[in-house]
């Protein structure tokens, strides 16, 4: 059987037998598990591509049997996160909840882009962006950049998770969550690409939207 080549991010590794590891990678379609034979040997050429949080390309002999693992042929390192930096550890612990709960392959491209731009200033904003994308894929948020009732994108003044944005003319007066203008902007710009999002929002309000989102998730899913 020919090996397939697929790009992925290492999200889990576990030592197995004397020199092997069980690896899980997040890919554009799903999470794939495989065994990396001999990878713990000092001279293994695949070691650098299998470190946790590494983004790489992997040649894998896929198994189609439930009780048999796929097998790594070769791994190619592309990029990884530096766990010597505290913000990387925080970011990784936060986003790890996504694939531990319910992984959507559509989130993969956003993760890859995040690898190229993450820093100590924007890591929490990137987490919020990814979290909002995940919530959308779960069907828990919708309509982030126009009024649910009239489809107008002007004078947006409130947000409800089940309906989305509301303009000042259709705003629900009974509010479970109250949003300041700057937090509404974070929700609004999350509907755009990540670079636009980061260029438009006020980072000072990111912790506030984090509190709201995590409170909502705690009450409405099994994420936390």
UniProtKB/TrEMBL annotation:
What residue range is the signal peptide?
none
Q: Does the keyword DNA damage apply?
A: yes
Under the heading InterPro entries, the entry gives: ARFGAP/RecO, DNA_rep/recomb_RecO_N, NA-bd_OB-fold, RecO
Annotated coiled-coil segments of the chain: none
Task: Identify one Gene Ontology CC term for this UniProt entry.
Answer: bacterial nucleoid
Which UniProt key words apply to this protein?
A: DNA damage, DNA recombination, DNA repair
Q: Which domain of life is it from?
A: Bacteria
Q: Name one GO biological process term.
A: double-strand break repair
Describe the location of the DNA replication/recombination mediator RecO N-terminal domain by residue ranges.
1-74
The protein depicted here goes by the name: DNA replication/recombination mediator RecO N-terminal domain-containing protein
At the highest ranks, the source species' classification is:
Bacteria, Bacillati, Mycoplasmatota, Mycoplasmoidales, Metamycoplasmataceae
